Amino acid sequence: MTPLDDGTRLPDTWTLGDRRVTRVGFGTMQLAGPGVLGPPADPDAARAVLRAAVDLGITHLDTSDFYGPHTVNHLIRDALHPYPDDLTLVTKVGARRDADGNWLAAQSPGELRRAVEDNLCHLGLDVLDVVNLRLMPDVGIEPDPTESIAERFEAMAALQREGLVRHLGLSTVSAAQVAEARAIAPVVCVQNAYNLALRRDDTLIDALAADRIAYVPYFPLGGFSPLQADALATVAARRGASPMAVALAWLMQRSPNILLIPGTSSLAHLRENVAAAGLSLTADDVAALDAIGG
After folding, report:
1. Catalytic site residues?
2. How many domains, the chain?
């Protein structure tokens, strides 16, 4: 693993199928323009952040062709192609953007195939390392944790059998939907909303860890009440770190199968995120933070 200039190192690794990745990855969504639409104000700076992430030793990039749309995948290809052998690109399908920038469901077998083909084209690949099926209800509709995903995941498994996808993952799913998908094809990762205050996936994380399946939390800092935010700030002040750094460190210590994908368009913030994830919390810190979600 590559050391930072201050001597710290990226935390340990985990596996996504046959791919070993750094537990600290990089989420690329913020490299698009405002509202995740169109190009960034400074495309050269965005490409520099991508190169810096790889130079820091990060081997796990999270992306999607609906970031922009297409913009971020083009930036990744411009900055990093031909890709290092140890770099794993994880993308997601299941949504589309309309002219107003809304996120809409695109989950028919045909739409999923087109999304995989678009990711392949825009990233300049013959096969995608990992593709997450993201459940995406239309605007104004709440996800149904009991809804069957069999038809959609079978469509993804067919693309895997064709050799277009190496490994499959899921996003924004319930434990029941994970079980349903695993009865169809292996699942290497689950990407759901989870943080100190939003702990509904605690049982799922532990079950996935027992089966060596990665859990990738998004929304790592948010949804806090004022009281919870004060508790986090207290620990952060005690450690001489930012609340974001402490929240990321707590996630790293929560379970070894948790992979982080903090995103930024800033080189300075990128380095801060990598260093923060290596922050070591004491048992008293962890106990105080665990109580936030209690």
Report:
1. 67
2. 1
